[in-house]
Each structure stands twice: as structure tokens, then as C-alpha cells.
Write a structure and sequence with these properties.
Elements: E1 2-6, H1 16-25, E2 30-33, H2 41-51, E3 54-59, H3 79-96, E4 100-103, H4 114-133, E5 138-142, H5 157-167, E6 172-177, H6 178-183, H7 188-194, E7 199-204, H8 220-229, E8 235-238
Helix pairs in contact: 1-2, 3-4, 7-8
């Protein structure tokens, strides 16, 4: 099973540019970053190359999503802003040589507009997939639980499978986050087996606290074994909030948890 560390949540004891080498020293050969855009791209590339890790995933910029807003990808009036965000993302993604880019659908805070938000999201998702396909970069999107992020447009696994089926685009797959889907009561075992061919990236954290494995109720030894035995061949991203110093939270990276 190929593991990667999320540098937005892990190794935050040091600045982002120093987290690459920290991750490498902890045993990760690959990393992912939620939003790398506040750091100079040349510095990021240099840090990546110096550490010897691969950057496998970043997100398209999401506007005000992380501060309680609706984001960019689903808002009909913000298609121009999303276009600019996608352009910036392509610049970072190609320079960092990422293998996948994730699109965050964002919130719909006005229920009466949900239909138009869905149409906008699917349109943006499709054109993102077209653009990224030219660079051989996979497009993913994810469902996020509504307890942590209220009114998030895509919040159920079935919604992801429906979008993939409806768009039928060879460059669109789901980013399946074990934490978010467990928080929504989804059947992780079923999805990781029956739907593994529709999954382009996997992330995990324990629940309900979003800490490292062993701090909550998920059975990671069983879950990781299912992933390893499935048809999924991609990375499995540790995207958790360490309850202790990051290096001390890595006890799960042993034969006791990993298959």
C-alpha cells in the first residue's frame, strides 16, 4: 500500500517548506498539499526536489470555502473566478508534477439554488478534467461530511458515484476520504471493494476527532487490508490532525496496523 502524508495537516510544527524533508525522514516517499498557493512555486519545487518526495495531489483553489463561504466550483456567478483558480492550479500542478488534482464542490447556502449549483459544479468538474487530461493529471472530487462543513454540496458516497456515472468522463474519479464517509455513516467496506475502480485517491483519519489511527473508532487494520486487496492502485493519504507532535503520531505505520 502506497502511503503519502498531507503536509497541510501534518508536520505543522515547522513551516511548509520544511515539511517535505520531515515527511521523508518519517518514512513517506510521497506527500499531498491542500492549498500550496501561498508559497512561492519555485521554493516549493526546490523543497520537493531536495527532499526526494513526490507530490501526488493538490486542490484547486477554493476561494472562501475554508472560512465559511461557498467556495468557487459550484457558484454560477463565480465561473470566471473558478477559471482563474484552475489556471493557477495547472501552473502549480505541472511544476510540482502531481498525479491528481482535487476539486472541492463547496457549499450551497441557499437550498433553492441547489439545482443550479449542481449544474455549475458538474460543468466546472468536466472542463477541469478536460484541461488536466492534457497534462496527464487525474481529476478527483470528494464528498465531505456536513458535520464539519455544513451545507457541503457533495456529502454522500452515492452522489459521487452518480456524478461519475452521469458525466462518464475517463479523467474523473472520486477522492474517497475514510474519515468524512465514516462521519456520514457510509459503508466503507462496501465502497472500498465494490467501487474501488471509481476511486482515484484515498485519504484517512480516525473518527470522530480526525486524529491519527488509534484515537477513534475506525478499524484501520481491516480497512487497510481491504484497500490493499482491492483493485485500487493509487496512494492512500494520511490527512489527519495529529493529537501529539506529528512524529509521535506515526505508531500506526507498523505491521500492527499496516497489512
Amino acid at each position: 500500500m502506497k502511503l503519502c502524508a498531507n503536509l497541510s495537516l501534518m508536520f505543522t510544527e515547522v513551516p511548509l517548506l520544511d515539511r517535505f524533508s520531515k515527511a521523508k525522514g518519517a518514512g513517506f516517499d510521497a506527500v499531498e498539499i491542500q492549498f500550496p498557493y501561498e508559497v512561492d512555486l519555485n521554493l516549493l519545487v526546490a523543497a520537493k526536489e531536495a527532499s526526494g518526495v513526490e507530490v501526488v495531489l493538490i486542490n484547486v483553489p477554493a476561494g472562501d470555502l475554508m472560512t465559511g463561504g461557498e467556495g468557487l466550483a459550484s457558484v454560477p456567478e463565480l465561473t470566471g473566478e473558478y477559471t482563474k483558480a484552475l489556471s493557477l492550479c495547472v501552473e502549480y500542478a505541472t511544476a510540482l508534477k502531481v498525479s491528481a488534482v482535487n476539486v472541492l464542490a463547496g457549499r450551497c447556502l441557499q437550498p433553492e439554488k441547489e439545482v443550479s449549483y449542481w449544474k455549475t459544479f458538474e460543468w466546472n468538474l468536466e472542463r477541469t478534467a478536460d484541461v488536466l487530461a492534457e497534462h496527464d493529471i487525474l481529476t478527483t472530487f470528494e464528498a465531505i461530511n456536513t458535520k464539519d462543513m455544513n451545507h457541503f454540496l457533495v456529502n454522500k458516497a452515492e452522489q459521487m458515484w452518480d456524478v461519475i456515472s452521469r458525466l462518464n468522463h475517463k479523467n474523473i474519479k472520486a477522492q474517497y476520504d475514510l474519515y468524512h464517509m465514516a462521519m456520514m455513516g457510509e459503508n466503507l467496506w462496501h465502497d472500498l471493494t465494490a467501487k474501488s475502480d471509481l476511486i482515484g485517491h484515498i485519504q484517512f483519519a480516525d473518527m470522530p476527532g480526525r486524529g491519527e489511527p488509534g484515537t477513534g473508532g475506525l478499524e484501520f487494520k481491516k480497512l487497510f487490508k481491504i484497500v490493499q486487496e482491492s483493485t485500487y492502485q493509487g496512494y492512500v493519504g494520511a490527512e489527519y490532525k495529529p493529537t501529539v507532535k506529528t512524529e509521535y503520531s506515526l505508531g500506526w505505520m507498523t505491521s500492527k496496523t499496516l497489512p
